Amino acid sequence: MDRYSPSELEPKWQEEWEKAGVFRARRDESRPKYYVLEMFPYPSGRIHIGHTRNYTMGDVIARYKLAKGFNVLHPMGFDAFGMPAENAAMEQGVHPGKWTYDNIATMRAQMKPMGFSIDWSREFATCDPEYYAQQQALFLDFLEAGLVYRKAAVVNWDPVDMTVLANEQVIDGRGWRSGALVEQRELTQWFFRISDMAEELLEGIDRLTAWPEKVRTMQRNWIGRSEGLQFRFETVGAPEGFETLEVFTTRPDTLFGASFAAIAADHPLAKALETDPEIAAFNAECRRMSTTEEARETADKKGIDTGIRVRHPFDPDWELPVYIANFILMDYGTGAIFGCPAHDQRDLDFAREKGLPVTPVVSPGDEGFTIGDEAYTGPGRMINSRFLDGMEVEEAKSEAIRRIEEAGQGRGVVRYRLRDWGISRQRYWGCPIPVVHCPACGIVPEKKENLPVRLPEDVSFDRPGNPLERHPTWADTSCPACGGKARRETDTMDTFVDSSWYYARFTAPRAPTPTDPDEAAYWMNVDQYIGGVEHAILHLLYSRFFARAMHRTGHLPAKAVEPFDALFTQGMVVHETYSTRGPDGRPRWHLPEEVERDEKGARLRDGTKVEIGHATKMSKSKKNVVDPDDIIRNFGADTARWFVMSDSPPERDVEWTAAGAEATHRHLARVWRLVRTIASEEVREEAPGEAATALLKATHRTIRSVTEGIEGFAFNRAVASLYQFTNTLAHTDAQAPGMAQARRFAARTLAQLMQPMTPHLAEEMWAMLGGEGLVVTAPWPEADPAMLADETVTLPVQINGKRRAEIVVPRGAGREAIEAAARADAAVQKALAGREPRKVIVVPDRIVNLVI
């Protein structure tokens, strides 16, 4: 080539890698392994440049580890089940499977030209029957191990889409897609017993030292361990069968500040009172609310007095009113609480609205302490609390629990916020749950030899609801136990299940069992996992649960119960938004390529003025996306890779700009021209002169800084070092003694160091310079410690402890030589003014101090 042409060189080197099978991972016990994985994508259509940043980070690590001698596993797949495919079926009349696989083909075609070092032979989609067959096998094993059960539970029900919604899909009480008012329905659901592992999952977080602390904190909070008191109030005026009301509290120290008790709308007592129309209507209103704690906390605090009273556990003559309240959740604690308004903001808001007493029982010690609009939740001593008065909070908690236990009214317990994982979904495009319902035998697991339970192809989406339920034949089957007529389970699994074990399947994606023991033992754990912080809670928590469950059922080794050794949460690629206003005043969004810019501003091609918005996360809805195909066509994949690694630390957002991409392309073209020049230079065997030695030292310093940058996930620093080194190399005199040889060594090292970021250009550089084989398989360069050391050192010279001068001496110089150099310095002689130092202190390579 006579110029840098990515369109020519990038496909060429991708073909060479493919022919050589460089990225095909095979178990090799003689080499240390390294498993790097990026969170796999949902095949929604096309990827944008923001996705490529995530994959480029993983690719930099994979290529670096390969060069360091590791046996690298770097796979890719697609998280392919889910509602968007069913929505497309309803809106576009296309089968979810066709929509999904078409999108996968599109995304794969976008990824491959980026030059990622992916072992594509291990690719799978979670909607592949081969994958979900093994997921069904895991379900059966979990069921046998007691990790799966079925029970009636209150769920968010969308009456239009006719499906269960996750809490996150309920927005202001309405379904995220249909906009319908969500109902709280009691349905029979399948659950994983994740709560049985709550303490184990909590303790495991402490071992995840290579995870961001923010993510570890989020996991701890979600599990939500709390110590408290579970006790029984005696009721007054309650229906038969409700002689006591059991409550859980983390603040037993505040019992003397109680002014009410409250229960959830789904509490059995609340349901028993629904013969009262007012209570029935209030309960129905509560059930339309989101079931998330966050939503309940921010909603207006409402309640209805049941007319029932409870007796205080420490004073039977003291009765408290019982309310049904909209801020109590049935699935936390016992679904019942006592309210101490002085020391809980939620209780205080409710008490003020209902005109209930507010009695402070913990005082910070301030004179005249009272409660205004804010509850006091800090430390202090007990007041207004009879036998607890004067105690510190923790001491009072212990004493209250002791007395309740002594009276046989309750006990101290540990509770967790973590609830069991409901996996039933009333939709088609998901993994079928492999059980049948037999009139004679009840619920019967499907036999493993009958897996997969395949989804039918001939389904209709002409009306809302689950197509599996109304399919004329699919659900009809025979009982695996008695052979009689039976009906298949028509619920499918939550798509979080699909992504909770895929990392293990990648170790042996074609195995006839969920994992191959030898492959799992070799490849697990994932050494480096990379993905967005938005997955910091559920996906990671469910994956940690699944790994433990797979270990208990014999599918993973003990070391893999924490499947991800290191986690990195990357920032996003952001871009300006471009909009015009329609006749209705609402913004109409435009793609970057539709906008032309000059010094006067931005306009569409027809001259319509465009409003430029702040750079924000790339999204299809706002059309501020950049297609990698466009970047590859105009600048090449290496430009995109270099740019997303260079501009900011990888954990922070980076703004994509056309000007930045152009500047990156110009730099890479400059590198190509520089290396072509160096490759054409005649190399003579001669000793390096001073300039050549300086270049060699700069080369070794760059090896060190790039290595440290990649190891520390500071890719932007590694790129900055390479920029600086390129400038150093470009400004060397090729005619200086030994310089041609030094320049060639420096250029070959530059190719090796750039290889993880710009692999195609690096291969071309390596080939031009006569490198042996492929640069991707060349060993990573090692910095020579001798070349990193400076030959001279600058020492401060002090007189009576005050700095007066600096001297430059050979590194390792002796005390006499250093003292002589210090005495000879003009500034020192001036300060001494002819006086003889009483004492001379010399610390070699560090400091000189003359005492006069």
Low-confidence stretches: none
Mean pLDDT: 92
Please tally the β strands and state the result. 35
Cα Rg: 34 Å
Main beta sheet: strand number and arrangement?
A: 7 strands, mixed
Approximately how much helix is present in the residues? 25-40%
Structural class estimated from helices and strands: alpha+beta
* N-to-C CA distance: 71 Å
Overall 3D form: globular
Strand content: 15-25%
User: How many DSSP helices?
Assistant: 27
Question: If you had to describe this structure to a student in words, what would you say it looks like?
Answer:
The mean pLDDT is 92. With 852 residues, the chain is an alpha+beta fold. Strands 8, 9, 10, 11, 12, 13 and 16 form a seven-stranded mixed beta sheet that branches. It contains 27 helices and 35 strands. Strand 24 (528-531), helix 17 and strand 25 form a beta-alpha-beta unit. The longest helix has 23 residues, at 658-680.
Layout of strands and helices, then pairs:
Elements: H1 6-20, E1 33-38, H2 49-67, E2 71-73, H3 83-92, H4 96-111, H5 129-144, E3 148-158, E4 163-165, E5 170-171, E6 174-175, E7 183-192, H6 198-205, H7 213-223, E8 225-236, E9 244-249, E10 260-263, H8 268-272, H9 277-287, H10 293-298, E11 303-312, E12 315-325, E13 336-339, H11 345-354, E14 362-363, E15 381-382, H12 393-406, E16 410-416, E17 421-422, E18 424-425, E19 435-438, E20 442-445, H13 467-470, E21 476-478, E22 485-488, E23 492-493, H14 495-498, H15 502-505, H16 517-523, E24 528-531, H17 538-552, E25 567-569, E26 573-581, E27 587-589, E28 595-598, E29 601-604, E30 611-617, H18 628-634, H19 637-646, E31 654-655, H20 658-680, H21 690-711, H22 715-730, H23 739-754, H24 759-768, H25 785-788, E32 792-799, E33 802-810, H26 815-824, H27 826-832, E34 839-843, E35 847-851
Parallel strand pairs: 1-2, 1-24, 10-12, 24-25, 26-31, 32-35
Antiparallel strand pairs: 3-4, 3-7, 5-6, 7-17, 8-9, 8-11, 8-16, 10-13, 11-12, 14-15, 18-23, 19-20, 19-22, 21-22, 26-27, 26-30, 28-29, 32-33, 34-35
